Amino acid sequence: MEKLRHYCAYQERCHSEVKEKCRELGLYGDAADEAIAQLVQDNFLNEERYARAYAGGKFRMRQWGRKKISLMLKQKQVSDYCIRKGLSEIDPEDYDRVLKQLAERKFASLKGEQPMKRTWKTMQYLLQRGFESDLSREVIEEISKKPE
């Protein structure tokens, strides 16, 4: 139990990560469930807090979009409610600003390409980073209309 407390105190964890750690420590079934319940009760484990930290961190540090963050949280078996709470951590103005910066940087780096290919590659880049296609399309159209 002490190792699990330390594991959760070191950084925010989700339930699936703690379950995996339990397996590594040789805890299975009911024993693992009881340990997780105790960690939740002692406030060492809080999935909403984890989702907020994860979403905020991935957006600020890696500049991921909402779709990619949401997908990664789903892979970690975080509930939809917690995912929504986590995504609410992202400021809409910052989100738009980062999307524009990334799009402008990528678009500028493809200066020698044909206009359609340049637009397509920029769009693919933004989609890969997890930004919504409609927002990405709007930003790219705005950028491509600007004179260079």
**Radius of gyration from CA coordinates:** 20 Å
Characterize the overall form.
Answer: elongated
Number of domains: 3
SS strand fraction: under 5%
What is the makeup of the main sheet?
none
Break the fold down into its secondary structure elements and pairings.
Blueprint (H helix, E strand, L loop, with lengths): L1 H9 L4 H10 L4 H13 L5 H16 L3 H10 L4 H8 L4 H18 L5 H14 L4 H13 L3
Helix pairs in contact: 2-3, 4-5, 4-6, 5-6, 7-8, 7-9, 8-9
Task: Describe the protein's architecture and organization.
The protein is an all-alpha fold and 148 residues long. It folds into three domains: 2-41, no CATH class; 47-87; 92-145. The chain has helices spanning 2-10, 15-24, 29-41, 47-62, 66-75, 80-87, 92-109, 115-128, 133-145. The mean pLDDT is 95.
